[in-house]
Design goal:
By secondary structure, the protein is mainly alpha-helical. It has 20 helices and no strands. Helix 4 packs antiparallel against helix 6 (224-265) and helix 13 runs antiparallel to helix 15 (455-471). The radius of gyration is 44 Å and the shape is flat. Residues 4-31 form a coiled coil.
């Protein structure tokens, strides 16, 4: 038998273990309950998520399908616009690429039958009025839509201007050569030169189109903001010019197509009158826009802004090229209708001739008039030479030579403002050199040479003459280095006080003159690097040779106890000083 005490201890031990097991079981039971609750919550969340996901999927799938459809439509629109751009980009390619189908063949045949019945049995001609009103509105909308599309497309992509084209035998509806931005470049050049001549005064690394304000009293740089605004304005102007030229070509082509359609529907003896009425609205709008261009050019002339008149010439050229097709298309219409384009051409010719004449005269007569140079970019010169069939090359050559002569007179008058002859020479040198370089770059030099073969040589002579005038300013430096007033003496001979003073004065005069000229002329500007280097080299050679010879003559002469006081510069230092002429950064 187990002792009583041992049995009691054993019982307590079993009871303790049982209690622990019960507690553990209770904890496990509570954990299972919590886990079950969490599982139910997770299932509920997943069920809700699945439900919402299905709802979202049901919502997204139709949107996705619609998006795919829209993308396909967008691609089709882009492809269509691309093809349309390819068709309308040059004004003349409409001829080759566009085949207009106003109505389906079946519908057209029905309309023809109805028209014939109304004429024969209905004794009613009111339908002709309805017809031309509907078609007239459609024609005008087509041209306006073309203009709007062209403007939007040009705002985001570089368009090739048809304003400048080479002379050719084809009709005006052929593809022109690519000459981007010609009018804008030409206008910028004219505007910049009109506002900023080529000064000789201070300026930081002045370029040929910077640094000269209108009254010649100082120097200023062009503002970047103004440049940006001007460039933006000129871009818009290019777009407007190209847009108008395209619309003129489109009108001719669309009018031809309308006439072909009209001849199938309208009785023969009413065709001309109906066609005349049909094209009036679109034609009047185009002529009104042309009149506005002429009025803008006239206002520009009144402001003496002759560069703005450049917009007239590419439009005038295109109108003249289009006129044969225009006349053929409008044959049989009223005289007032046929005369609208010739009247616009005459207005543009008149205002263009007036601008050219007043521009040439203003340069010579008005000494306060802002300078303008009749020199364009290479693209513009090609445009000028293409006018040879319209304006005699000799007349154009004579006109340009007249402008150059008046410009030279104007420059001579403006140069008188400078009291310093050397600065006056630098001013004239800069301008003569710039004009010659621009003429050569634009190839207008060949056009001027048609009537004045020596024009290039004349400008080179003027440039060389002004260089010589400038070099005279250094005579007051080199005159101190001559042998004049220097007595003949043997080495080692003791000089008299007067003789020593003569040598001292020569050193002093040379030093002061050199320092003064270098200080003043360092702030002047010669924008052409080649010319600037040539002037420096020539001056270094003359001054350095004279200075070396003078130092050699005085080498063994004791004329002062402090030679460093008078012999301040070595020949190399003198050359370094001359190398800093026309360099404000030195």
């Amino acid at each position: 038998m187990i002792p009583t005490e041992d049995a009691s201890a054993r019982k307590r031990e079993i009871e303790d273990k049982l209690k622990q097991e019960q507690e553990t079981l209770s904890f496990i039971r509570e954990s299972l309950e919590k886990s079950d609750q969490l599982s139910k919550g997770m299932v509920s969340i997943l069920s809700s998520f699945e439900s919402r996901l299905m709802q979202l999927e049901n919502s997204i799938i139709p949107v996705h399908k619609q998006t795919e459809n829209l993308q396909r439509l967008q691609e089709n629109v882009d492809k269509t616009l691309s093809c349309l751009d390819h068709v309308i980009r040059p004004p003349g390619t409409i001829d080759r690429y566009v085949t207009l189908e106003h109505l389906p063949e079946a519908v057209l045949q029905d309309i023809i039958c109805i028209s014939a019945w109304l004429v024969e049995y209905g004794r009613n001609q009111d339908f002709m009025n309805v017809y031309f009103q509907v078609r007239s509105s459609q024609l005008d909308r087509s041209i306006k839509g073309l203009k709007e599309h062209f403007r939007k497309n040009s705002a985001t992509s570089a368009m090739h201007s048809p304003a400048v084209q080479t002379k050719r035998k084809e009709t005006p509806t052929k593809k022109p050569p690519k000459r981007p931005g010609t009018i804008r470049k030409a206008q910028n050049l004219l505007k910049q030169y009109s506002q900023h001549g080529l000064d000789g005064k201070k300026g930081s690394n002045l370029t040929p189109l910077e640094g000269f304000d209108h009254d010649l009293r100082g120097v200023k740089h062009l503002s970047d903001d103004k440049h940006g605004a001007a460039a933006g304005k000129d871009d818009v102007l290019d777009i407007e010019i190209d847009s108008y030229i395209h619309c003129i070509s489109a009108f001719v082509k669309l009018a031809q197509s309308e006439y072909v359609l009209l001849t199938e529907i309208i009785p023969e003896h009413h065709q001309k009158k109906t066609f005349d009425s049909l094209i009036q609205e679109a034609l009047d709008n185009l002529m009104l826009e042309g009149d506005n261009i002429v009025s803008a050019a006239r206002r520009a002339i009144m402001r003496h802004d002759y560069s703005a008149v450049l917009t007239i010439f590419p439009i005038l050229r295109h109108l003249k090229q289009t006129k044969p097709d225009f006349d053929a298309t409008l044959q049989g219409t009223a005289a007032s209708t046929k005369n609208k384009l010739p009247a616009l051409i005459t207005s543009m010719e008149t205002i263009g001739a007036k601008a050219l004449e007043e521009f040439a005269d203003s340069i010579k007569v008005d000494h306060t008039q802002r300078l303008m140079v009749p020199v364009m970019t290479s693209e513009s010169s090609s445009s000028a030479s293409s006018y040879s069939s319209e304006f005699s090359r000799r007349l154009l050559s004579t006109y340009i030579y007249k402008v150059l002569g008046n410009l030279q007179l104007n420059l001579s008058n403006k140069a008188k403002v400078y009291e310093d002859p050397a600065l006056r020479a630098v001013f004239l040198h800069n301008n003569y050199n710039y004009i010659l370089k621009s003429l050569e770059k634009s190839e207008l030099i060949q056009l001027v040479a048609v009537t004045h073969k020596k024009v290039e040589g004349s400008y080179r002579e003027l440039i060389e003459q002004e260089i010589q005038n400038y070099q005279r300013s250094w005579l007051k430096v080199t005159e101190h280095l001559t042998e004049r007033n220097i007595p003949a003496f043997q080495p080692g001979t003791k000089l008299k006080d007067k003789e020593r003073q003569i040598i001292k004065d020569k050193f002093k005069g040379f030093n002061e003159g050199l320092e003064e000229l270098c200080k003043i002329q360092q702030g002047w500007a010669v924008p052409d690097k080649e010319q600037r280097d040539a002037i420096r080299q020539a001056e270094k050679r003359v001054v350095s040779e004279a200075y070396r010879a003078f130092l050699q003559r005085c080498a063994n002469i004791s004329f002062t106890k402090n030679p460093e006081k008078y012999h301040r510069y070595s020949p190399e230092q003198v050359e370094e000083m001359i190398d800093k002429l026309f360099d404000t950064s030195a």
